[in-house]
Amino acid sequence: MHYKGYEAVIEYDEEAGLFHGEVINLRDVLTFQGTSAAELKQALAGSIEDYLAFCAERGEEPEKPFSGQFVVRAEPILHKAISSAARRAGVSLNKWVVMTLERSLR
């Protein structure tokens, strides 16, 4: 499920007869629950809106969903190998890494 760029995963608790959700693209812990898809959507929106309001009350910037940038540390020999692979493919190192990650997710 998604709301305002935030993403959540849902699990079903058969014993309780409830779906539990958690926002996964934040360091903060935001959870919600419901018994139907409609309730889950409403509960997710409510949790995000509460989080945004809480941050505003405290004068803090809410944590944003991922920016699209991250640092990868690799052994020098691997760095050299992927740099060479990118050059052979005729793309930047960044583009090669993104293309490779996208392929691995398919």
General description of the model:
- With 106 residues, this protein is an alpha+beta fold.
- The protein folds into two domains: 2-58; 76-105.
- The protein is 46% helix and 19% strand.
- The protein is built from three helices and four strands.
- Strands 1-2-3-4 form a four-stranded antiparallel sheet, covered by helices on one side.
- Strand 2 and strand 3 form a beta hairpin.
- Helix 2 (76-89) crosses helix 3 (93-105).
- The longest helix is centred in the middle third of the chain and has 22 residues, at 37-58.
- The protein is elongated, with a radius of gyration of 20 Å.
- It comes from Phyllobacterium myrsinacearum.
- InterPro entries: Arc_rbn_hlx_hlx, Ribbon_hlx_hlx, TTHA1013/TTHA0281-like, Uncharacterised_HicB.
- This is Toxin-antitoxin system HicB family antitoxin.
- Pfam families: HicB.
The unreliable regions are none
Beta-strand proportion? 15-25%
What is the residue-averaged pLDDT? 93
What radius of gyration results from the CA coordinates?
Answer: 20 Å
Query: Strands of the biggest beta sheet: in what spatial order?
Result: 1-2-3-4
Distance between the termini: 19 Å
Structural class assignment: alpha+beta
**Main sheet summary:** 4 strands, antiparallel
The global form is: elongated
Number of helical runs? Answer: 3
Order of helices and strands: EEEEHHH
Helix content: 40-55%
Number of domains: 2
Protein name: Toxin-antitoxin system HicB family antitoxin
Pfam families: HicB
Organism: Phyllobacterium myrsinacearum
